Amino acid sequence: MTDKLDIRAFALGGGVMWSLYVMLDAWIARFGWGDETVETLSSLYIGYRPTLRGSLVGALWGFMDGALGGAIVATVYNAVARDEEQS
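^ thats the sequence. predicted structure below, dont judge the formating
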């Protein structure tokens, strides 16, 4: 029997982890590291810049993006695990 992933918990975890990464990347970019990552993500996340306000905006976008990604991964995993269990 395969355990199912809790979709809400996986989404929350993905959202928190990705938002922290995005926020920390903006802070680090202020010192000249990771500029390319901030530049790339700022084309997707409106208002994301290597500033305090921009890092918070990016963290909000990152949370939504990571939560959606986590929910999709957990849903696909549960569907595949259910199919494997039935065969």
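Residues 7-86 form one domain.
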